[in-house]
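Hi, here's the filled form for the chain we discussed.

Project: internal
Contact: R.S.
Residues: 307
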Amino acid sequence: MTQLAIRDGAWPILLTAFDEDNKLDLTAIGALLDFYRDLQLPGVLALGQASEMLLLNHDERLRVAECVARHPRGKLAAATVGNYGDTLAEQADCLGRIHDMGTDVVVVALSLLPSADGLADQLLELASLAAPDLRLGLYEIPEPEHRLLSPDEVAQVAASGRFHFMKDTCRQIEPFSAKVKAAAGTTLKLYQANLAVLPPSMDAGGAGFCGWLPIVSPELCAQVCDLSLPADLRRRAHDKLMAFNEVIIISGFPASGKYLLSLRGLPIQPKSRRDTAAPFFANGPAALDAFVAREDPFSALEPAEQR
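And the returned structure, exactly as it came back:
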């Protein structure tokens, strides 16, 4: 099985689509993959926090993982959270099952590990239990318990050569920079999850952005991640994303994100199982519509001299 390259840049979290009966809408998920593939994004993270992964049952998670793995994705890599089970042995089996579907990187969510203690030791044991051709990822998912790796722990797991992708959620530039240095010279790439600290994270050697905004505005996110662009353009793109992020949150994410994708022509409904989506259904999309009409957040910015 040929595994796609893990490229730098903006990685959307793949939202989970639901139909009118609150069941999985795999057709809509396939359309999302087509959308990101056609934009030539480096990859997607499936079954993340924004995917409502913790509100899916095990069968639903496997169905989403299979849909993503087997969908024609071109160069769009698939990183999918896959360490489900009560023991490390059960989690290793599940990682292998999702890998065998055709997933490029099978991601270990730290909060799903059996214990909050000895994270690096558990990760290395999982790696030893998994097939040697299985590429692993790391995700400091904030729920149900926010577990973070220290720079020393990052160095330990990176040195194994088994880990290739990490979504870091420490939300601070100093520890993120230290983790990037700890992984230097290894296969492990670190992606920033927090929009506020994205620009200095890229300057510190981060590989890109894996968060909410690439879901709906990957063009602007790609510009912030591109160090070859003028600093002013990157700053303006980031400022617009920060304002957009605020509107998305107050409007009830992830329902607000799904609504925005529908504005971009995707056949996805703003159905959600998360309590955080309630404001969307209570207040409607007026704030989102107004921001989109005023700011055009779906288009990349032009250099200042071309405006």
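Let me know if anything looks off before we file it.
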